[in-house]
Q: What sequence folds into this?
């Protein structure tokens, strides 16, 4: 009977708890410059070799140091950052989905949909609808009507 009364902790999109992946404090020689460079180039097809070359490390050393500093492999970290960039663009712009995908480095809108759904449980359209920080079209129309001396509906 108890098994039937237990409900899975599933929340709709607006109630999800998204936890940012914090980075540890910078100490001595770190890959902070390489991570910053990668963040500036998220829209480019970055490889382990590109990251290692920027850090002046071998791929093996880069991978080991990256995991020590961030808790993630370089490519996992890169994917997290790309998804975060897509989320940021979905929240703060009206860019078409394919442009959001391109600017965040996720390639296509299909790829972005798969990654975003897997990471946050929402499609890009649902995510934008739930978390947008842009003024609503209705609110803008109401404000302009009031500004012209009319009554807001």
A:
């Amino acid at each position: 009977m108890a098994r039937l009364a237990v409900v899975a902790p599933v929340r709709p999109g607006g109630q999800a708890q998204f936890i940012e992946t914090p980075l540890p404090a910078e100490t001595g020689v770190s890959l902070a410059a390489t991570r910053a460079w990668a963040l500036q180039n998220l829209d480019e097809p970055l490889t382990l070799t590109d990251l290692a070359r920027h850090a002046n490390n071998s791929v093996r050393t880069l991978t080991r140091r990256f995991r020590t500093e961030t808790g993630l492999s370089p490519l996992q970290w890169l994917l997290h950052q790309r998804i975060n960039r897509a989320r940021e663009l979905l929240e703060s712009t009206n860019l078409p989905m394919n442009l959001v995908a391109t600017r965040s480095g996720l390639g296509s809108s299909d790829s972005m949909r798969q990654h975003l759904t897997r990471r946050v449980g929402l499609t890009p359209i649902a995510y934008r609808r739930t978390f947008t920080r842009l003024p609503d079209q209705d609110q803008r129309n109401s404000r302009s009507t009031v500004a012209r001396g009319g009554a807001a509906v």
Observations:
- The chain has nine helices and no strands.
- Residues 29 and 69 are 11 Å apart (CA to CA).
